[in-house]
Amino acid sequence: MQRRTTRRQPVLVYDGDCAFCTSSVRFAERRLRPRCEATPWQFADLARLGVAQQRAEREVLWVTPAGSVHGGAQAVAKLLMSSRGGWPVVGALLTLPPVRWAAHAAYRVIARNRQRLPGGTAACALPSSARNSRQPS
């Protein structure tokens, strides 16, 4: 879904209830300094962004000013491509097959197990419907 907005920079939408997700975003903001606005989905105007809550609960999202939505590993790729230093090269590699496929698989494993990762808590666990789904991002 695409939606025209007056935003000038992309928005990174993440799970603000998940300590792992929040600490990952804070790390990216400090170290990578991406050109975006990062906001938890719980405080975002999802309708204005053209994003369904179910999708925001399942994966990190990158919403462009034009309204294009990229999820999961491709959202991470977009974040890296908007960062400083050599990170845009890494982000661009994540968009190319077969690296893209491997990144997607790695993202799904991390998302399903984020409560077990450093900084993760029980609040980080995805809803059971999202943990068991095989929906593409």
Which key phrases capture this entry?
single chain; 137 residues; four-stranded mixed β-sheet; 7 helices; 10% strand; disordered C terminus
What does this structure look like?
With 137 residues, the protein is of the alpha+beta class. It has one domain. It has seven helices and four strands. It is globular, with a radius of gyration of 14 Å. The two termini are 13 Å apart.
- Helical proportion? 40-55%
Number of strands: 4
Instruction: Give the distance, in angstroms, between the N- and C-terminal Cα atoms.
Output: 13 Å
Main sheet overview? 4 strands, mixed
Provide the domain count: 1
Q: What topology does this entry show?
A:
Blueprint: E1 11-14, H1 19-32, E2 37-40, H2 46-49, H3 53-58, E3 61-63, E4 69-71, H4 73-81, H5 87-93, H6 99-112, H7 128-131
Parallel strand pairs: 1-2
Antiparallel strand pairs: 1-3, 3-4
Helix pairs in contact: 4-5
